[in-house]
Amino acid sequence: MRWCSVLLGLLLLRLGLLALRGLVLPGAARVVVPGANAVCRASYGRFLGPRDEYGRRYSTFPDGLRSEMREMARAMFLFGYDNYMKFAFPEDELNPILCRGRGPDTENPSNLNINDVLGNYSLTLIDALDTLAVMGNATEFQRAVRLVIDTVSFDKDSTVQVFEATIRILGSLLSAHIILTDTKQPFGNMTLSGYDNELLHMAHDLAVRLLPAFENTKTGMPYPRVNLKKGVPPDSRNETCTAGAGSLLVEFGILSRLLGDSTFEWVARRAVRALWSLRSNDTGLFGNVVNIQTGQWVGKQSGLGAGLDSFFEYLLKSYILFGEEEDLEMFNEAYKSIQNHLRRGREACNEGEGDPPLYVNVNMLNGQIMNTWIDSLQAFFPGLQVLKGDIEDAICLHAFYYAIWKRYEALPERYNWQLQAPDVSFYPLRPELVESTYLLYQATKNPFYLHVGMDILLSLEKHAKANSGFCSESGVAMPRYTTLLRNPKKIGWKAFF
Ligand SMILES: *[C@@H]1O[C@H](CO)[C@@H](O)[C@H](O)[C@H]1NC(C)=O
Ligand SMILES: *[C@@H]1O[C@H](CO)[C@@H](O)[C@H](O)[C@H]1NC(C)=O
Ligand SMILES: *[C@@H]1O[C@H](CO)[C@@H](O)[C@H](O)[C@H]1NC(C)=O
Ligand SMILES: *[C@@H]1O[C@H](CO)[C@@H](O)[C@H](O)[C@H]1NC(C)=O
Ligand SMILES: *[C@@H]1O[C@H](CO)[C@@H](O)[C@H](O)[C@H]1NC(C)=O
Asked: Which UniProt keywords apply (predicted)?
């Protein structure tokens, strides 16, 4: 199961940045911001090459190079997008090696890796809308919006994962709707004459089709999957992961507020509260898999990666969006438990005895370490720490992930920090490190993070580019190819724009 950390869309990006100014800068002023270089150098220097070269390389980022990178990011996006439109649309995504479209695996309904995400609803087109706006491409944005309105329907016999449909489809429709109706039009004039809230109506239609997942559950936590036509399939499993049940509030909350109908926010909030009540009394930690009927923890591993990641992310981002104190209180308390029980290594990031800090996987009941790997998804956490205002720890953890990136020119899905080697070595173009890099750049304006962005861009161009798009890099066999476009808004290298 792929629990990607969440995509935000532009709305969040904008609001997040506004909030960033409010939340972070007072703290940032205290922290020695140019410290990014020093932290990275001190902790992970062995990955990064000789000191002088390091200083020369990271301390500036020339304007010319920045526009070159901006054009490269634009070209990479267009390459994937145009080829998707040419070879794959109206199917969900492009197989960039075979140059063919692909939708749900109807022959093998248990192929969840595919069927959780691909709903036979032109996923990539919808997912790309706000990236077209970020790129300032008004004509194509408007054309794509029309195409979505005219051709996409959710009245499909597809069983999709509630979480995936929410973050990819619901989130994309809502952010495109907000872009279309924004009076300020920050990306150039993206308005569409005759637009009559069609994307909002589509979002509503989809959300109503997801609602059955929240019915007939004793705790209020949703079933993980739902058929868009027929509701929850009979004999559905009663288990879900924490992230799946607990990261729906951003999209459901925005939908409720746009529609003036509290139903959606209410069900999402009820699921968060149900999870909240199940945290361990001793450690304050959550497990990764829970039974939605009994509330019992089926998976007791607690960590910041797969199964939990976006649950924490949504607590804080919901607070930033909606300003409900309850969300901030839950986030702060969860953050405290994370610092107390998951964080290992020395107290300060950049000085003192011991290893640089690291967040490990532990048993939720007693805080005992469960394994010696961290996963690639956890790279979202520095970004969240930036939003919280914990810049120094954010710099530190990000530097650790960047050091791994430098070594492999990708992030292995799982990295064993004891052996200092990958445990699972594929890289399905995950965007978490990029998002953290972006937020750290916004918080510090340190050119170091533009270099990180450039390194990531160049690695992808070098290793992940295929005939007609970008695909996952596999050290071990990957069951599928993931186009870069799959998560375009997460892979926007927005810092260059
Ligand atoms: C996808 O939807 C189209 C149009 O509704 C339908 O004709 C087609 O059979 C569906 N494909 C799959 C794989 O479900
Ligand atoms: C806008 O998108 C279209 C379709 O991908 C592309 O052909 C065109 O060059 C883009 N325009 C700009 C300014 O990038
Ligand atoms: C955008 O363009 C439309 C049509 O050309 C125009 O009516 C509208 O005032 C413009 N909106 C903004 C915010 O510039
Ligand atoms: C899920 O829980 C319900 C209610 O407790 C029970 O009736 C059903 O058999 C369970 N389903 C599975 C697949 O275990
Ligand atoms: C925590 O304590 C409360 C009250 O004593 C109890 O009802 C609940 O089951 C406990 N939760 C866990 C996860 O142990």
From this structure: Endoplasmic reticulum, Glycoprotein, Glycosidase, Hydrolase, Membrane, Signal, Signal-anchor, Transmembrane, Transmembrane helix, Unfolded protein response
